[in-house]
Specification:
Layout lengths: L1 E8 L3 H12 L4 E4 L8 H4 L13 E5 L12 E5 L5 H4 L9 H9 L7 H11 E3 L13 E3 L7 H12 L15 E4 L4 E2 L2 E2 L3 H5 L8 E4 L2 E9 L2 E9 L4 E12 L5 H8 L2 E2 L1 H6 L6 E2 L11 E2 L2 E5 L11 H14 L11 E5 L9 E6 L14 E9 L7 E3 L10 E3 L6 H18 L2 H4 L4 E4 L7 H11 L1 E2 L29 E3 L14 H15 L4
Parallel strand pairs: 1-2, 1-13, 2-10, 5-6, 13-25, 14-15
Antiparallel strand pairs: 3-4, 7-18, 8-9, 11-12, 12-13, 16-24, 17-20, 17-23, 18-19, 19-20, 21-22
Length: about 525
């Protein structure tokens, strides 16, 4: 049995960050990743990320049938390769709102207010164009301006301004509100995942051991403390590794609570129902699940202006040549180039985020739809719904039981309906009309609130931002403390989106990287 200073479970967005910081501090690290290396070409070409979803480099989690979504099963893809979500996402760089972090602080997470986390965001960031009070320019994480601006993306921004929405060039500055092009975690027209940035910087170190295709089955415990990890490699061989200092869970908000429960850490009644010896009764493990939910407004046009067909035949060949020889063209796009953050309720801060795709796109299982069109996707930024993750069996290879409980209350559905109404208004604006767009769905016949709600529930999907299932705090349902230590389990920490007590108002990759940076600070006593 090999021994390391630290074992990091999960080689994704957070795992690569923690690993980088520990290795650079002179610590020996074993990093375990369930999936293969990030050596699939489609990972690194920005617009090709849709080709990765559904392959062996993603987990395609499925909810139980969702009553709020007409009994449909919703699909939540998660990264299963080095870089994790940062290797398969749309590369959008969003931190959330200052109030998000002040809320964490007020919920009992000392040291997690906006003033505490802003310096960490800045330290991690290498921004191509922005600097000053809100941005860093020397960190490992590359943040770039869009290399491609699709005509539909530009038309959306003009249309949004035509209906009275402000334009912004920085969603991560003094104010989040407005519409604009997203900055992305890319560099040199390639994806800048944490594997391609943080991990690459330490890959040659003799202190680092990376084990891919390694499925962790349980946390090993001694005298109530984490002592190591048991895992199985792709050849079917079982292994164990010991940690002299700590085990850090970075497996994500769906896999981290599962591993904890398999190891006897979680709700005692649930563990006992599976015959798992209870090592630590933590009722919050697997609870408090949150995700961003969207329902598309679809516009269709008779003109060949969308991304439809650009990945086939001669067009695909031309796009490939343009990218290969000039690092230019459509393949440099992150596809979801534009969007915005809008206060639709008058609460004083944005409650809806738009993601705009210059194509007709369904959920993760449907892919592109027929025809040339646009998908205007309003999502609920701070859902009130709370779901749950639990064990299906004691077998690590069996899927979790996953209740999203999405759209199960009036506040969330009403927020989403306001976003749909605003999306329709933008679609009907002159700039979109100029490209020949007309509404495909909800459709002209869906004018009443009842009809809009029916549309929302029939087409709702997640934005793939699962969080909250091992939340930080001081209350009875808290799983980790403010230094990300699992409560009552020495030498075990969690450093991924599962620790978020409430979901941030925007894409979760940058906040997850920030959480991992702070975890390394706590371990190295730099906080």
């Amino acid at each position: 049995m090999k021994t390391f200073d630290y074992i990091v479970v999960g080689g994704g967005s957070s795992g690569c960050v923690v690993t980088n910081r520990l290795v650079k501090a002179g610590k020996s690290v074993l990093m375990l990743e369930a999936g293969p290396k990030d050596n699939m070409p489609f990972i690194h070409i920005p617009a090709a990320f849709v080709r990765v979803l559904g392959t062996k480099r993603t987990f395609m989690y499925q909810t139980e049938p969702e009553p709020g979504a007409n009994g449909r099963v919703l699909v939540v893809p998660q990264g299963r390769t080095l870089g994790g979500g940062s290797s398969v996402n749309a590369m959008i760089y969003i931190r959330g709102q200052a109030q998000d972090y002040d809320t964490w602080r007020d919920l009992g997470c000392e040291g997690w207010g906006y003033d505490d986390v802003l310096p960490v965001f800045k330290r991690s960031e290498d921004n191509e164009t922005l600097a000053g009070e809100y941005h860093g320019t020397s960190g490992p994480l590359k943040v770039s301006e869009p290399r491609h601006r699709h005509p539909i993306s530009s038309a959306f921004l003009r249309a949004a301004q035509e209906v009275g929405l402000p334009l912004t060039h920085d969603f991560n500055g003094a104010s989040q509100e407005g519409v604009g092009f997203f900055q992305t975690t890319t560099f040199n027209a390639r994806r800048g995942s944490t594997a391609a940035t943080y991990l690459k910087a330490v890959k040659g170190s003799p202190l680092l051991t990376i084990s891919t295709d390694s499925a962790v089955s349980r946390i090993m415990m001694e005298n109530g403390a984490a002592s190591g990890i048991a895992y199985r490699t792709a050849d079917g061989v079982d292994h164990q590794a010991r940690a002299k200092e700590e085990v850090i869970l970075c497996a994500g908000a769906l896999a981290t609570p599962k591993l904890m429960m398999l190891s006897g850490i979680g709700p005692a009644v649930h563990l006992a129902s599976h015959g798992i010896p209870v090592l630590r009764d933590l009722p919050g493990v697997g609870e408090n699940f949150q995700d961003h939910i969207t329902a598309s407004v679809y516009g269709i046009t008779d003109r060949p202006v969308s991304m439809k067909g650009q990945d086939k035949g001669l067009r695909a060949a031309l796009n490939g040549l343009q990218y290969l020889f000039g690092r230019a063209g459509l393949l440099t796009s992150n596809v979801v180039e534009t969007g915005g953050f809008i206060d639709t309720s008058g609460c004083g801060r944005p409650d809806i985020q738009f993601h705009v795709t210059p194509a007709l796109v369904g959920d993760a299982s449907r892919g592109q739809m027929d025809g040339h069109g646009v998908s205007i996707n309003p999502c609920i930024l701070r859902p009130e719904a709370r779901g749950k993750v639990s064990l299906r069996s004691t077998r690590a290879e069996d899927p979790i039981v996953f209740f999203g409980n999405n759209l199960n209350n009036r506040t969330d559905i009403e927020t989403l309906m306001r976003g749909i109404k605003l999306g329709r208004k933008i679609l009907a604006a002159p700039a979109m009309k100029a490209l020949g767009f007309r509404e495909l769905a909800p459709g002209d016949e869906a004018q009443s609130d009842e009809a809009i709600e029916k549309h929302a529930r029939s087409i709702a999907k997640t934005v793939y931002h699962p969080s909250g299932t091992a939340k930080m705090g001081r209350d009875a349902m808290a799983v980790v403390d403010s230094q990300l230590r699992v409560i009552g389990v020495p030498r075990l920490r969690v450093a991924d989106a599962s620790v978020m007590p409430t979901l941030v108002s925007g894409n979760t990759n940058a906040p997850t990287i920030m959480i991992a940076e702070r975890c390394a600070d706590f371990i190295l006593s730099r906080a």
